[in-house]
Amino acid sequence: MSPVILVVDDKESFRLNLERYLKQLEYEVVGAGTGEDAVEIAKKIVPDVILLDLVLPGMNGIEVLKQIKDNHLDSQVIIMTAHGSVRSAVQATKIGAVDYLEKPFDLDKLKITIQQLLEKEKLRREVEYLREEKRGKIKIGMDYVVGRSKNMEYVYDIVAKVARSDTTTVLIQGESGTGKELIANLVHYQSPRAEQAFLEINCAAIPENLLESELFGYEPGAFTGAKRRKLGLLELADGGTLFLDEIGDMHPNVQVKLLRVLETRKFKRVGGTKDVYVNLRIIAATNRDLKEAVRLNEFREDLYYRLNVMPIQLPPLRDRKEDILLVARAFLDERSKAVGRTIRGFTEAAKKVMLEYNWPGNIRELKNVIERAVILCSGSEIGPEHLFLDTATIPIEIESHPSTDTILALSEETESTGIYLDENTPVHVRLPEKGMPFNEMMEIAERAIVEQALALTHGNQVRAAKLVGVSRQSFRYRMNKFGIRSQDIMDSDENDDV
Prior knowledge:
Layout: E1 4-8, H1 12-24, E2 28-32, H2 35-45, E3 49-53, H3 61-70, E4 76-81, H4 86-95, E5 99-102, H5 107-145, H6 150-164, E6 170-173, H7 180-189, E7 198-202, H8 208-216, H9 233-236, E8 241-245, H10 252-264, E9 266-268, E10 275-277, E11 281-286, H11 290-295, H12 301-307, E12 310-313, H13 324-339, E13 345-346, H14 348-356, H15 362-376, E14 381-382, H16 404-408, E15 419-420, E16 426-427, H17 438-456, H18 461-467, H19 472-482, H20 486-497
Parallel strand pairs: 1-2, 1-3, 3-4, 4-5, 6-11, 6-12, 7-8, 8-11, 13-14
Antiparallel strand pairs: 9-10, 15-16
Helix pairs in contact: 2-3, 3-4, 5-7, 5-13, 5-19, 6-7, 10-12, 13-15, 17-18, 18-19
């Protein structure tokens, strides 16, 4: 999805030439000759950037800017002004404009200004989206972490204490699927850093050279293809928290540089010569025994002690069986609500299956099992036939398999289930007979909901975001993610009226 730029100028020849130039840069461009038209267009499509002339017939540029801010539109406004109006342009920056260009201006300078604005705005929207998403996860995640077992009560007590100390490094250890990422989120969102960024990276999923540039960033010319400066996660997380997942698999060369950051709170970008100072908390997690890794010379001892200031050991689900049904119920309530179903709970046979199962995948496996069971269940209770567990450790008399009716409930012939924005606008989500990964299904549903919200509000992004209960930035992030444009929705509406 190309960024949208609104050009506002009453001199038609100037405006058209500027529109033509911006289109060559592959932007979506809309023009307006009056302030009144500019405000109406901005309300409809909320452009990424507005190039706004100060001197306009009727409503002038300052009044247009005030209208944009009063309507809480997050467009980035650049003022275009003649030499004699520079004082007014400075006034506009105090109201909310991000920059001003004095006519006649250099097109290359305009190009660079727009590029920098868009990069900054993209990062801001991504951070807002992730922050909103994490808050939602934490809100429902408390039930997954806080159980009745004494070992989890101890974990939660440690989380509450370490959260108050917002610089203490935390090392979370536990088997895969025990909820290490969620604990890291809990520490961050209960700390004084909660309003700042929470960024994360999987150290095992990225090669050494890429991991270094992702963490520390790089300068132009640092290596082949490094055309411009890139800020690393350490710098982007300044003021907030950086979560290093699977740190036990970090390459030794990167371990050395991370140790220096922990000791000095400064680093150099790849190819850089100047120190960058940061104020952040680092939370690390691993499913490896780091003490054993140190003994085998597979992990630096000095880094281990630097990370292990506040250790948190998460127990496997099999060691907290009194929490299994509590956690399963929390997952069931969440998924039932998400798909618009009313499922009362689990049959006694299903409860017995879950309590006797060993859960090698821990909470992550339980979550996936419940998600699948909600899809498969066509009644009011989850039975053992909906769980699809590895029955090697389950008594043979309670093993079961899905019925033909259950399988048919997932086919494309079924019209009785779906997500509804209102009684007349169903968004049907059905599993194809050959199957589909759950994440892909969720993305299809998410895209459909964004499109439906825009259709119901005739392309008004502010109202559409309110309709689905997310922030304007988060909604715009989803539009960019799926390549959805308000203009397309508006054009579709106009065609329907013909």
